[in-house]
Amino acid sequence: MTRFVLAIALLSTIISQAQIVGKVTDTNDNPLPFVNIYLKDSYKGTTTNDTGNFRLDVSDTAEYEVIFQFLGYKSVTKSIDATSFPYVLNVTMKEESVSLDEVIVSNDEDPAYRIIRETIAKRQETLDKLSAFTADFYSRGIWRVEDLPEKVLGQEVGDFDGALDSTRTGIIYLSETISEIAYQQPDDFKEKIIASKVSGNDNGFSFNSAQDANFSFYENTVDLNAAIVSPIANNAFNYYRYKLDGIFYEGNKLINKIKVTPKRPKDRVWDGFIYIVEDDWQLYGVELNTTGSAIQVPMVNKLLFKQNFKFDPNTEAWVKRSQTIDFSFKFLGFQGDGQFIAVYSNYDFQPQFSDKSFTNEVLSFGKEANKKDSLFWKGTRPVPLTDEELRDYVRKDSIQELRKSKTYLDSVDAVSNKLKPLDIITGYSYKNSYDKWSMSYNGIFPGINFNTVQGWNASAGLRYFKWYDENQTEWLSIYGDANYGISEDRLRFTGGITKNFNRTNRLQLSLFGGSKVQQFNAEEPISPIVNTVSTLFFERNYMKLYELNYAKVVYSQELFNGLRIFTNFGYEQRKPLFNNTDYVTIPNDDVSYTSNNPLNPSDFDNAAIDEHDIFKTGIRADITFGQKYMTYPDGKYNVGNNKYPALSVTFENGLGASNDDYNYSQLRASLSQSINTGNKGEFAYRLKGGTFFNGDNISFVDYQHFNGNQTRIGTSSSYTNVFNLLPYYQLSTNKSYFEGHLEHDFKGWILGKIPGINQLNFNLVAGAHLLSIENNKPYSEFSVGIDNLGFGNFRFLRLDYVRSYYNGTSDGAFVFGLKFLGFLD
Over 50: is that where the pLDDT of 15 sits? Predict the structure, then answer.
C-alpha cells in the first residue's frame, strides 16, 4: 500500500497542465543540481533539484526559448514549440572551457586584482540599481542526521517523531515556503508568506524566511553570527589574495572566474571562486566556503554558499536568481548535514512604494498559509522534490493522524514516563500528550548547595504544566518548591501559578508566595555553585542572606508594539538571619568566615536589618524603539531592532511598612544596545541610573545594590551588567546613582591577523565600567580579555585582566569566566 501511495505521489508531481519538465545532466549522465532555468527575456524560471529534475510552469502552448545556466558549465538555450503538456525537455550541459589565452598576464600583478578593484569601485552603484524591488520567493530547507546516539549526556534523544530509521538516520526537518517579498534601501523589508509546509506537521510553520536568506556579497560583510568579510568589500585586499582562474563567455558577456584565497585562513573569511562580468563589474556567480570556526559556531564543519545571477537589461544589473547553502555539523554525537534552497522570480525593479508600504511588521502569513493541499504545491512548487524528500512527506504525512491519536501518544508517553532508580534524586517527568499536560519533579541532587546560614541545603519541587493548543500559545503553570537547610534546621516552601493567555500580546497573570532565603541583592550576583566552592574551600562566604516571607501578584502585557509593561503588588515580611555553621572542607588559619551582615562583616551579633513588614508595588515599562516583529497565525514574535537602544523604566514603591521610616519610592531606568560593527566585531553598552524619594532611612534590603564580584570567577553571559572587582555591598546606596558599562568584542578583528595566534580562534574583548553615586567618589574599572576560550566545540570560557580605581587606590586581578554557569543559574 505504501508503494502504491508513493507511486501516485510521484506521478502527481509530474502530471500538470502547462509545464515543461525534464532532467539536466552533465556529459557523463550525472544529474546537475540547482541549475537555473528560465524563459528568455523574463523572470519566469525554476531550478533543478538535487537529482537534476526540473519543472517549469508556462502560461500556454507556444514557442519558448528556455535558458539553462549553471556555474562551471556552458549555458544552453533550447528553442521549443510546446504544443502539448507536459512537454519533456532533457538537457545535457558541458563543462565550461575556462581559458587564459586572451588574458594579458603581467609579471607584476595577477589580472584578478584589476577586476576586483573595478568591482569594488562599482559596488555602491550596483547596490543602488537594486535599491528597490518586489519579487516572488521560494525556499526549501532540509536537515538530516546520521547514526544518531540514543542518549546524549544521559538524556534520551528519541526518534524525532518517527523520522529515524533502524540505523537512527533520517530527515529531522523538511519544510517549504512560498512568499511575496518587497525591499527598499537601506533596510526596509517585508515578506508575506503565501504557503508554508512542514513535513509531518499540518499545523506547522516553516522557519525558512526570505529575510534570513537575504545575503549580499555587495555588502562589506555577510553576517553569519560573525561578520564574514566579502571578497569584494572595500577592505577586501587586507583579507584575500586573488588569481584569475580563467575566462568564458555568456553570450557576448565575458565572465572572469577568480580564485579567492584568504591571507589568514582562520580569519573571518571565505575561500572559493567568484565570477565577475567584464565591463559590467558585477557578480555572475558565487561559490564560496567558510567554516564553523570563522562564524564562531564550532558545531558547523563547513558552510558552502552558491549564488547565481541573471542579467536584467532594464536595470543593466545582474540580479540574484538562486541561492543554495549547504552545511554539515557535528556536536555531542549529533552529526549530519543540511541545505537551504532559495529561488527568486518575477522581479519588479520599479515598484510603486508609498510611505505606508513598509511598517515594523517584517513578516506575515496569508490566510490558511499552512493548510495548502498537495494540488496547490504540485502546481506552485518551482523546484521539484527529490525522491528522498517525497518519501519523507508521504511517510510522515501518512502517519501524522496516527501520531495525534490517543493510542499512539499514550504509547510514546509510556516509554518516556518510565520511572528509573535515580529519578528520586535527579528528577522525574510524567507527560500526558493527548490531554496536553505534564507533571515534573525536580530532584534534590541538582539543587544541593552550601552557605554559612543554612549549611548544606537542598531543594526539591513539583511542576504542573497544562497547554491548550498544539503550539502552546495558551498555557497554565503551577509549581511548588521546598528547601531544607541542615544547619539551620529549617524547611521553607514557595509556590506560584502563572496563566499565559496568548502569544499575541502575551498577557500573563501570576501569583507567587511562600518563604525563602534571599540575597540582599535580588539580582543574585553570586551563583550558589560558586559560593559553595568559595565557602567550603577558601572560607569566603560572600553570599549574604535574609528571610523573605511574601505574597505577590504580577500582571504583564504588551500594550502595543514596542511597549510591554509589568506591574506587581505584594506583601513582604523580612527577617534577619545569622550564620549557623563554621564547617569548612579545607581549614585555613589565615582566613575565617565573615558574619552574615553585609554592612559590617565582622559583627556576628547584630544584623543588617531588623524584622519588619512592608507592602511593595512596582510598574516597569520595557520599550523597544522601532521594534520589528513577525505576525504568525498563532501569535506575534518580536525580533527587536538593533538600530535603536532598548529602554526600561521602573517605578517602585514601598508603603504601609511596620516602620514608617521604611516607606520610600525609587525611579530607575536602563538603556542598552548591541551594535554590529561589521568585521570589527560588536560593541555593547548598558547605562543605568536612578534616584530615591524619601529614602533616607529605608531598610538595607531596599537599597540599590550593584552587581559586584569578589570570587574572581565570572559567571554572567553578559559582561555589561557587572563590576568584576567591586565588593558585593560596598557601594550599595539609597541616594541617586548612575552606572555605565561598555564592552567591545573584536570577534577576531585583531587576534585573527596575528600569525600563530589566529589559529586559536580567540576573541579580544575590552571593557570599561563606571559607577557614580551621590556624595561619593566614583568607582571605575577597565578590562581587557580573551573570549571564545576552550577546545573543539566547547568554547564557554573567558579570561579578563581587570583594573579598578576607587578613592585614590587601584587594584588589579584576573577574572576567569565560566560563562556556562550564567546559563545554568
Answer: no
Q: Rg of the chain's alpha carbons, rounded to an integer?
A: 31
pLDDT level of residue 13 (50, 70, 90 thresholds):
very low
Which residues, including other chains, have CB under 8 Å from residue 791's CB and lie 6 or more apart?
none
Q: Which helix (H) or strand (E) holds 380?
A: helix 374-380
Read off the pLDDT of residues 525-552 as tens digits, 9 standing for 90 and up: 999 999 999 999 999 999 999 999 999 9
Q: Rounded CA gap, 451 and 580, in Å?
A: 9
Long-range contacts of 497-505 (CB under 8 A, 24+ apart): 499/475, 500/473, 500/474, 500/475, 500/476, 501/474, 502/473, 502/474, 502/635, 503/471, 503/473, 503/634, 503/635, 503/636, 503/637, 504/635, 504/636, 505/557, 505/558, 505/559, 505/636
In contact, 765 and 742? CB cutoff 8 Å: no
CA distance 374 to 400: 15
Give the distance, in angstroms, between the CA of residue 729 and the centroid of all CA atoms in the same chain.
35
Count the neighbouring beta carbons within 10 Å of the beta carbon of residue 618.
17
Taking alpha carbons only, the member of 764, 774, 784 closest to residue 733 is 774
User: How far is residue 695's CA from residue 702's CA, in Å, rounded to a whole number?
Assistant: 9
CA distance 339 to 208: 11
Grid cell in block for residue 779: 568607582
Helix (H/G/I), strand (E/B), else coil: 8: helix
Packed helices 2-14 and 387-398: angle between N→C axes, nearest 10 degrees:
130
Check if the beta carbon of residue 272 is closer than 8 Å to that of residue 262. no
Beta-bridge mates of residue 787:
763, 798
What's the pLDDT score for residue 701? 97
Reply yes or no: is the peptide bond before residue 86 cis, omega within 30 of 0. Answer: yes
Phi, psi of 233 (to 5 degrees): -70, 165
Residue 448 cell numbers, joined = 544541593
Q: For residue 108, which amino acid is it? A: D
Please check whether residue 741 is in contact with residue 720, taking contact to mean a CB–CB distance below 8 angstroms: yes
Residue 770: all three cell numbers together: 563606571
Residue 688 near residue 669 (C-beta atoms within 8 A): yes
- C-alpha atoms less than 13 angstroms from C-alpha of 249 in its C-beta half-sphere: 4
Do the bridges between strand 628-632 and strand 361-365 make them parallel or antiparallel, or are there none, so unpaired? Answer: parallel
105-156 pLDDT, tens digit per residue, is: 666 789 999 999 999 999 999 999 999 999 999 999 999 988 888 776 666 6
| Terminal-to-terminal C-alpha distance of the chain | 52
Instruction: Spell out the residues 6+ positions from residue 176 whose beta carbon is closer than 8 angstroms to its own.
Output: 138, 139, 140, 141, 195, 196, 197, 206, 208, 377, 381
Round to whole Å and give the CA distance between 261 and 523: 49
Q: Which residue, chain included where needed, has cell 576560550?
A: 789
Measured over the CA atoms of residue 744, residue 749, residue 753 and residue 758, the dihedral's sign is: positive
Distance CA 291, CA 304 (A): 9
| pTM to 2 decimal places | 0.87
Q: CB within 8 A of 58, min separation 6: which ones?
A: 18, 19, 20, 39, 44, 64, 82
